[in-house]
Amino acid sequence: MTLSIVITFLVFALLRMPLAFALGLASLVGLFVGDMDFSVMPQRMMHSIDNFPLMAIPLFMLAGELMVAAGILQRLVDFANSLVGRVHGGLAHVAILAGMVLAAVSGAAVASASALGSALVPSMREKYGTGYSSAVVASAANLGAIIPPSNAMIVYALMAGSTVSVGGLFMAGVVPGIILAVGFMGLASFISAKRRYPLSGGNLGLKHILVQTWRALPILLMPIVVVGGIVAGAFTATEGAAIAVIYAIFMGFFVTRQLRLSDLPKAMFNAAVTAAMVGALIAFASTMTFAFTIDLIPMQLASWLKDFTSDPQIFLLLVMGLLILIGMFIESNAAYIMLVPLLAPIAMSYGIDPLLFGFLFVMNLVVGMMTPPVGVLLFVMCGISNISLSELMKSAWPFIAFQYVVLAACFLFPGIVTWLPHALGY
Amino acid sequence: MKSRAPWLEAHASSPTQKRFLVAMLAIDRTSYYAIILAMGSMTLLVSAQVFARYVLSTSIDSADELSRLFFVWAIFLAIPHGIKVGIHVGIDAIAGLLPAAVQRQLTRVMALASALVMVTLVWLSLGAVADKWQQLMPTVPVTAAMFYIAVLISAGHSLLHLIAQIWQVEPLPSAPAAIKEGETS
């Protein structure tokens, strides 16, 4: 049964059938070959979506949509510009800092890329050229899946079951996220100085910084309230996401006053359709994972891996290599949904810290989002900036290489990932 | 009707296609409002539960179950709209190497294969709805089949969008304002 599922999925997926439907077709073939009751399919699909923690994804997406419609991006850019606009590569720093804060609001890399790209690339390309501007924005947007809240981490935690908490994973992303952001800024400074890009932004002034910080304060407080509440156990990730939506509506109507009632339906619809992409994958993959369980695939895979190596480090390296390869070709959500239920229990049996494994899993696929040939963020930026992939890659590779360096550092020095969540009791 | 007439002329070459697109527009529009209703209700219920717990020191019994129901509906109803705007991704690495004309035909063949999945799912969901019809949800006096009705509608609506792809007709935008603004999705 498993073999027929895998072959059917691979054939149709490689022929560009949408992955969700290829999973559905492969599941039907598997049920037929395994002579199983087909009625299991709608049951598995419905039960996989009927899940309270999963609700956090469309709600965080909705919060991000509303925050952008509320005009927070301009305030963020003004705030970042007041802090770092005057240094070499100022606008690049502004993009990275704004991306970092936006990441802490929306939790989604692709949405951040669209918002940041539309807002910043037009002004950045005049000073730095299109390729470099797009590469910086894509890198800044990629922080969205690392810095909490992260939709990728929510999907991982959901697929891993009770072995790892969303709050713990969120905290695991904090230190690496800061390292990435600071490293991107260092790279931007180095490249800007080397290429002698002109200075931008006004003179640094304490009063100006204070004014811009005051204007941006409600936005900066949102991740503290939402993520803080989740980590402190005051509310669940889903409740935190709903609070983020209410917060964004309040901000838009009463603080920035740019949100209109007519913006709400569009934001809700867009959030639902984007979340449905993840939802369709989860729903259609559910029958496949059920068939794998019937065939005892997780146990067989664990036994095969244990025969191959008993060293957890080698197992981790194997998984990371596999994920880098998969991340280059498959949309990351599909990879979480298909692989986490198989690999997370095996990692546990090797005695690997679930938070470390979860974070490395997520970060591998996040870096894959910027790695050709199927780096979804690269394609989003190519679309926004109207440039070719090869032109974008000429400027993007240092930022991609740096992400791999941080990934390797997290593997070699797990404390980077696990120190904060462990200190907070996860 | 006036605002969408140029769309129909541009996207339908026969009276049958026009009727199909008008019917699709009605279904898409109904689904659009249902998604908004489901998303709004879900957000309000989850927020109200937090408010009730911390401010009123109580809890809304049915909030969890109802919010999950609205979530299931929002996600399943949104899947067909995702087909329309091409949000359900595939692997381009190999198919992208083929000539453009072959790629177009391949897209239609894959839409046909996806449509077969949806036909099967419609049939299976009908069985699930019939099976659960007598069963009530634990906290609300409503049939538990409500969850499966979302799957049934999603599969049926998706099937229509896949037929549109096979037939190579482009449905009109779901959002009412989008037609006036001239958006394509």
From TrEMBL, chain A:
It is a multi-pass membrane protein. Keywords: Cell inner membrane, Cell membrane, Membrane, Transmembrane, Transmembrane helix, Transport. Residues 6-415 form the TRAP C4-dicarboxylate transport system permease DctM subunit domain. It is found in: Cell inner membrane. The keyword Transport applies. One of its GO terms (molecular function) is transmembrane transporter activity. It comes from the Bacteria. Pfam families: DctM (PF06808). One of its GO terms (cellular component) is plasma membrane. The chain crosses the membrane at residues 6-33, 54-74, 94-120, 132-158, 170-193, 214-235, 241-259, 271-294, 314-330, 358-384, 396-420. Belongs to the TRAP transporter large permease family. The complex comprises the extracytoplasmic solute receptor protein and the two transmembrane proteins. Part of the tripartite ATP-independent periplasmic (TRAP) transport system. NCBIfam families: dctM (TIGR00786). PANTHER family: SIALIC ACID TRAP TRANSPORTER PERMEASE PROTEIN SIAT-RELATED. This is TRAP transporter large permease protein. It comes from Vreelandella subglaciescola.
TrEMBL record, chain B:
Keywords: Cell inner membrane, Cell membrane, Membrane, Transmembrane, Transmembrane helix, Transport. One of its GO terms (biological process) is C4-dicarboxylate transport. InterPro entries: DctQ (IPR055348), TRAP_DctQ (IPR007387). The chain crosses the membrane at residues 32-51, 71-97, 109-130, 142-164. Residues 42-168 form the Tripartite ATP-independent periplasmic transporters DctQ component domain. One of its GO terms (cellular component) is plasma membrane. Pfam families: DctQ. It is a multi-pass membrane protein. It is found in: Cell inner membrane. Coiled coil: none annotated. One of its GO terms (molecular function) is transmembrane transporter activity. The keyword Transmembrane helix applies. Belongs to the TRAP transporter small permease family. Part of the tripartite ATP-independent periplasmic (TRAP) transport system. The complex comprises the extracytoplasmic solute receptor protein and the two transmembrane proteins. This is TRAP transporter small permease protein. The lineage of its organism: Bacteria, Pseudomonadati, Pseudomonadota, Gammaproteobacteria, Oceanospirillales.
